[in-house]
Amino acid sequence: MAEFFAIHPDNPQARLVERVSAVIRAGGVVVLPTDSGYALACALENKRGVDVIRQIRRLDDKHNFTLLCRDLSEISTYARVENTTYRLLKAHTPGAYTFILEATREVPRRLVHPKRKQIGIRVPDNRIAQAVLSDLGEPLMTSTLMLPGESLPMTDPYEVQEVLGHQIEVVIDGGFCGFEGTSVVDLTAEVPVVTRVGAGDTSAFSETA
Description:
Mean pLDDT: 91
CATH topology: DHBP synthase
CATH superfamily: DHBP synthase
Strand content: 15-25%
Helix content: 25-40%
Largest sheet: 10 strands, mixed
CATH architecture: Alpha-Beta Complex
Radius of gyration: 16 Å
């Protein structure tokens, strides 16, 4: 059964954060809060973890995962960021946005869109997620915590523990953190294009495609 940690949303307990990151390093899959709901997460190089997440959500191999990054400098390691793109990212991170960017070779090939070589990247405005990312020292592969056939993601950590506790290693209770997905903004074209309107304010970008 998964370990269950109640972590304070404003002042995350360091010992619990360190325990979570240790489980991730050891190959575990965790459920953690973000600024747009709870997410399934594992280490970037954890092929088994990605497979577990695919199985839980019944995703095919064409599903695009999102890289959860600590800050702008980490983004630039895994995605190509031009000057104009950098300014946009700086103005909108951390926040409830997923940005579609050209992937660098640091991203495992299995996680990149097979034709367009793109990756979704975001910097969460959530202290627990930020604390885990900081302690871990590398991005997390994430996917929204939504079960097959459901129209809304899971929001109750106790229910997550009951339903998924035998398939994952850690459930974090970080309180209610919403259930609306991120706004998705494609930054690979000449102008930014919003491809999904979600929790992040999209008024600074082009209209939805």
